[in-house]
Amino acid sequence: MIPGFSQRRNFSDLSEQEILALAISSEEDDAQIYRNYAEQLRGGDYTDSARVFDGMAAEEDEHRRRLIELHEARFGTVIPLIRREHVSGFYARRPVWLVQNLGLERIREEAEMMERDAHNFYLRAAQRTQDAATRKLLGDLAAAEAGHTETAGALMEEHVAGDARDQEDRTAHRQFVLTWVQPGLAGLMDGSVSTLAPIFATAFATQDTWTTFLVGLAASVGAGISMGFTEAAHDDGVISGRGSPLKRGLASGVMTTVGGLGHALPYLIPHFWTATAIAMLVVFVELWAIAWIQKRYMQTPFLRAVFQVVLGGALVFAAGVLIGSG
Q1: What is the pLDDT of residues 109-162, one digit of tens each?
Q2: pTM of structure
Q3: By residue range, what is the domain housing residue 22?
Q4: What CATH number should be reported for the domain holding residue 63?
Q5: Total domain count, the chain
Q6: d(CA 321, CA 326)
Q7: Which of 21, 124, 225, 306 gets the most CB atoms within 10 Å of its CB?
Q8: From CA 141, how far away is CA 260, in angstroms rounded?
């Protein structure tokens, strides 16, 4: 994809009707997520916390009802089909299969993040509307979501003794992950995996270490520039809360370049097989490091991370070797 071009709409380009439609679909999705959390917690003997999420789901349903009434009054009964994934930079929710079997701690963190995102959305949406009734409703919903954030933040108090969580620390950690870790990890994965085939194909085709290094350098720098611009251009960070696009683009671009250079630099060694052995060792370390980072910061199950990264990287590496040897 060419950096900066996307099939998704920018939030700033949405009409007031489309903003209401987006809010309606978002409230519907969030209510269902809270019901799933409630069912999970009931199965884990957290019946009181499950009732909290039942109540939060019911409130999301009420928000959706009020939004639909307002839409009918202003625009009629036909609501445009627009969802989060249709809007560039809009906050996303984890797929249900990634939040199954979470502990109460992780569910609380997810709920707190959801409500903070929704609060920010309603504040931004209220600023975009000129209609007094719409502006009032969106402002009221922003205040309601802020109240939900406090509810989610306090959810663990009765279940975890000696709770000493600091809200500012949690917020700072989440922002660090969104601004630096996520784009940096995406860049590292892209740089490490996507450059394997051209570097090792060149290495085995030419057995010329300097040529291989130049190809690896070009592939790494080119991929870094592309990833950096793409990350910075596709999300301004205002609605998604992912932070400065410049910082995210820098993290993604630098880590993409580093990921490729890791196994290109050994080819500065003149002896082909020595350079190749070291490059293969670097690849092994890179792929396992990526799997560990995914588990540590993205809560990806380790075996799934290994399957996605290590196996995928091994296949790309093998493809490069086979192509170069042929």
Answers
A1: 778 788 888 888 999 899 888 899 999 999 999 888 887 666 665 554 554 444
A2: 0.62
A3: 9-153
A4: 1.20.1260.10
A5: 2
A6: 8
A7: 21
A8: 46
